[in-house]
Design brief:
IolE/XylAMocC-like; eight-stranded parallel β-sheet; alpha/beta; 283 residues; 9 helices; TIM Barrel
Length: 283
């Protein structure tokens, strides 16, 4: 399988300081049709709606805007790296709230026309034993995976950088959690920056998680940072060749969301898509 721009998506979180309409205009100028929709303000935020009917009205407006220009949501990515959402929380109320939040997000994903929902393990209290937090995360993911199976939704779980979470930051962590949850609905998303930070290779994931890798988050780094493609020192060519070698057929989301781009995200996205457009014909 040849990688092409048809498999490229962009995460909308990097446009958090801009309107959804501006984001769509930027996507159109860059020639990208696939959206990994971050569900946070000001575009679409769960807390802005008192019930599902009100949320559905907003979703309908956004879908109409995307339909008119031939764009689609390929994955819904809820905000989850900040309080008060944490699947590994020791606090029962916080953990239950987090589970309920993701259940609603599954429904939103279906309304947006996708069966993919991005998810992470949460983060454990660092002054407590890791295994305690691991247990809370695992049980939360089991509940969500069972619900996802009923809805026909696929949960794609990403490893995080060690500063973001003390639970899943390596390939072995990912393998362990997927095995312990033991659900066909729980799949793997690889963030190449998080992978590089712990000095792992893309091939490690394909070797240890055959058939489970459904999504890729792509950016450059040194190795941390989520930079414009070509501005860091990550082996992007090697990554692309590994994806081809393993006949990867999922989407590759550009996650160019380092804070240095927040005030003007369009040039960063344009440079990254231009990089890929020049690169793909060489594969």
């Amino acid at each position: 399988m040849n990688l092409t721009m048809d498999r490229i998506a962009v995460m909308s979180v990097q446009y958090v300081q801009y309107s959804f309409e501006y984001f769509l205009d930027s996507m159109e100028m860059c020639g990208v049709k696939n959206i990994e929709l971050w569900t946070g303000a000001p575009h679409f935020c769960d807390e802005d709606y008192t019930n599902f009917i009100e949320a559905r009205k907003r979703i309908k407006i956004m879908k109409n805007q995307m339909d008119q220009i031939g764009m689609k949501v390929i994955c819904v990515t809820p905000e989850q790296l900040n309080y008060p959402i944490n699947l590994a929380a020791h606090n029962d109320v916080l953990r239950r709230r987090s589970i309920d939040y993701f259940i609603r997000q599954m429904e939103y994903a279906l309304e947006f026309g996708t069966r993919q929902l991005f998810i992470t393990s949460g983060v454990g209290l660092r002054d407590k034993p890791k295994e305690e937090s691991w247990k809370y995360s695992r049980e939360s993911l089991k509940v969500l995976s069972e619900h996802a199976e009923k809805l026909g939704v696929r949960l794609i779980m990403e490893q995080l950088q060690p500063y973001e979470s003390n639970l899943i930051s390596t390939c072995s962590d990912m393998v362990r959690m997927i095995q312990e949850v033991d659900s066909p609905s729980l799949q793997c998303c690889i963030d190449v920056v998080a992978m590089a930070v712990v000095n792992e290779k893309l091939e490690d994931f394909f070797d240890q998680l055959p058939g489970r890798i459904q999504h890729i988050h792509l950016a450059d780094g040194t190795p941390s940072g989520h930079y414009v493609l070509g501005d860091g020192n990550l082996p992007l060519t090697e990554y692309m060749k590994t994806l081809q070698k393993n006949q990867y057929e999922g989407y590759i989301t550009l996650e160019i969301n380092d804070s240095i781009y927040l005030t003007d995200p369009h040039p960063a996205l344009k440079r990254s898509t231009d990089y890929l457009k020049k690169y793909f014909p060489l594969l």
